[in-house]
Specification:
Helices cover 61% and strands 5% of the residues. The chain has one domain (3-305). It contains 12 helices and 4 strands. α4 runs parallel beside α5 and α5 (101-120) runs antiparallel to α6 (124-140). The longest helix is centred in the last third of the chain and has 22 residues, at 213-234. The strands form 2 sheets. A two-stranded antiparallel sheet has the order 1-4. Strands 2-3 form a two-stranded antiparallel ribbon. The protein has 307 residues and is mainly α.
Length: 307
């Protein structure tokens, strides 16, 4: 396995993981019954906020399928003909400034999105800087071994198999979640997922002047995803840092009130692989003023994240 293959695999992992990072709660026994490609009965448990464990897992799956990963958002930006905006990223050299576990978790999510963005634009030198920043913050949080070389190889080998990637990422971030839980810091996973979503949105909205309608539509669609992200993160014990971040994100929710929703009839089909494909459902649209309001709210929250 060449280094550049592992390097390319990491943004895939973070791109998917940004929306799975808080997932896969429950006991070790429950998780041990998981097998790729099979369904197992999970004993219903409850988290601190009363959200059932299986409900949390289902919510994570819905978020993943509905939301563009940082890699997808970056791809949309590049396809629009936009140029790389390196000054939009949170400087990788600032990693050492984050000395509390809360700030480290928040900026682990931030840097994951930044790495995806730089990688899509083939800014290899910049990407290496963010890779180093991610490894540094992971080490500070005591979870650097979760993102092991073995995991990178598995991601690279299955990078074109979405279903397998979901399984791999779920398992990887289950380990991250369990490690943080063991350290009495499970809430940090909520900070990772929330900040990763915010940074992906921030980078997408830096290109509004040159954005295609497809990108604007994807921004509007985040209304539903944001609801799920907020509900999911609120299911964790509300530490001061997590509660403060979610409170600040309420301004983004308010901006999304201007997004129009048109209900449509949903459909479900099953592929030969056995996977279910959900289509139809509501569609979302927003005028330029609403998109700009969302961009401004996201920018304000993001500024607080990187302080």
């Amino acid at each position: 396995m060449r280094f550049n293959q592992r390097f390319q695999a990491l943004p895939v992992l973070f791109g998917l993981g940004a929306f799975l990072a808080t997932g896969c709660g429950g006991s070790q026994d429950e998780h041990a019954g998981h097998d790729h490609g099979t369904e197992t009965e999970v004993v219903e448990g409850m988290d601190a906020d009363g959200m059932a464990v299986t409900s949390r897992q289902n919510t994570l799956t819905k978020i993943f399928h509905a939301a563009p990963s940082p890699m997808e958002t970056a791809s949309l930006i590049k396809r629009s003909g936009a140029s790389f905006h390196g000054d939009a990223l949170n400087g990788a050299d600032r990693a050492s400034e984050y000395t509390t576990s809360d700030a480290q978790a928040i900026n682990l999510g931030i840097y994951g999105a930044d790495l995806s963005y730089a990688t899509i634009f083939e800014e290899n030198a910049t990407s290496l800087e963010y890779l180093a920043a991610i490894k540094s913050l992971s080490a500070e949080l005591g979870v650097d071994d979760v993102l092991s070389g073995e995991v990178m190889e598995e991601v690279e080998a299955n990078r074109n198999d979405r279903d397998m990637l979901i399984d791999i990422v779920s398992d990887t971030f289950y380990e991250l979640n369990e490690r943080l839980k063991f350290n009495g810091q499970e809430d940090l996973a909520g900070l990772v997922v929330a900040s990763g979503w915010v940074e992906g949105m921030y980078l997408a909205t830096r290109h509004l002047d040159e954005a295609p309608e497809e990108l604007k539509t994807r921004i509007a669609e985040q209304k539903l995803v944001l609801d799920d992200v907020m509900r999911l993160c609120k299911s964790y014990e509300q530490t001061e840092a997590l509660a403060a971040l979610l409170t600040s994100m309420e301004a983004i929710e308010a901006a999304y009130a201007g997004v129009a929703t048109t209900e449509g009839e949903g459909s479900t089909s099953r592929e030969e692989s056995g996977s279910f494909v959900i289509g139809g459902g509501p569609t979302f649209s927003a005028d330029d003023a609403t998109i700009q309001a969302i961009a401004s709210a996201v920018e304000a929250v993001r500024s607080g994240c990187i302080q």
